[in-house]
């Protein structure tokens, strides 16, 4: 039972264009969402998060959008850079719990 | 500022041997997490400590797995006896107190059981 799903295993984007990574969840109790980036042979690195009281959070080139009614979030990277090539995981959690549920990841490749 | 430090980075051992993975969390972080990443199951939480006390070990697969946190700066995950299906990358993460504090991950231990 996958509570957090990333349906696109991979994505290729040209340098300078927008990358959009998607994530769907099923548990309506989730109220905090995070995106992590992972390079090979390294641990996941926190990128950006969003609380369910917001529908958008922006940090430089990275913006996360949350659509609660659709139980969907997305990460936008603008403009995409070759250094953004990595695996991106979304994660979800509920208030009062420290347990993150991770998606299976999307491998982003930014082409120079 | 040092991040989460895990050792060893790689471990290859034979089935039946005891394996001990080590983790040093970020100083000042109250929460510590052990995860396992496999192709089949992705990244899954094994156990969570808060202030050195195990809070949730529901993800520990079976009695062969045990984890300890004797002090705020050190934790171990032990597998005894090890089996080939335990082969995976094991991550340790830590975070400050507070449910919306992001977890910071170490670089993992790649474990291969032959």
Can I get a quick summary?
Chain A is mainly β.
Provide a descriptive summary of the structure in words.
The complex is a heterodimer of chains A (112) and B (114). Chain A has no helices and 11 strands. With 112 residues, chain A is mainly β. By secondary structure, chain B is mostly beta strands. In chain B, the strands form 2 sheets. In chain B, strands 2, 4, 5, 6, 9, 10 and 11 form a 7-stranded mixed beta sheet that branches. Chain B is globular, with a radius of gyration of 13 Å. Chain A binds chain B through residues 32, 34, 36, 41-46, 49, 51, 89, 93, 95-100, 102-105, and chain B through 4, 31, 33, 42-45, 48, 50, 55-56, 91, 93, 95, 99-100, 102-108.
Number of helices of chain A: 0
How far is the first residue's CA from the last residue's CA of chain A?
38 Å
Biggest interface found? A-B, 23 and 23 residues
Succession of helices and strands of chain B: EEEEEEEEEEE
Q: Which regions of chain B contain 5 or more consecutive residues with pLDDT less than 50?
A: none
Helical proportion of chain B, percent range = under 10%
What does the largest sheet of chain A look like?
6 strands, mixed
Shape of chain B: globular
């Amino acid at each position: 039972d996958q509570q957090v799903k990333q349906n696109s295993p991979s994505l290729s984007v040209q340098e300078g264009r927008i990358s959009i990574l998607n994530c769907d969840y099923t548990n309506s109790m989730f109220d905090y969402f995070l995106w992590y980036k992972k390079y090979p042979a390294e641990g996941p690195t926190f990128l950006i998060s969003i609380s369910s009281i917001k529908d958008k959070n922006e940090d430089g080139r990275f913006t996360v959008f949350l659509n609660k009614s659709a139980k969907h979030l997305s990460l936008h990277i603008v403009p995409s850079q070759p250094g953004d090539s990595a695996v991106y995981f979304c994660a979800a959690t509920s208030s009062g719990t420290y347990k993150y549920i991770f998606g299976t990841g999307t491998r982003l490749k930014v082409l120079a | 500022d040092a991040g989460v430090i895990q050792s060893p980075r790689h471990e290859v051992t034979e089935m039946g041997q005891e394996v001990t993975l080590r983790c040093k969390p970020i100083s000042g972080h109250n929460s510590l997490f052990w995860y396992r990443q496999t192709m089949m199951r992705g990244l899954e939480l094994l156990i969570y400590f808060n202030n050195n006390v195990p809070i949730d070990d529901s993800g520990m697969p079976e009695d062969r797995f045990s984890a300890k946190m004797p002090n705020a700066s050190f934790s171990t995950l032990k597998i005894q006896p090890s089996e080939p299906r335990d082969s995976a990358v094991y991550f340790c993460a830590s975070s400050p107190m507070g449910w919306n504090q992001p977890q910071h991950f170490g670089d993992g231990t790649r474990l291969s059981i032959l």
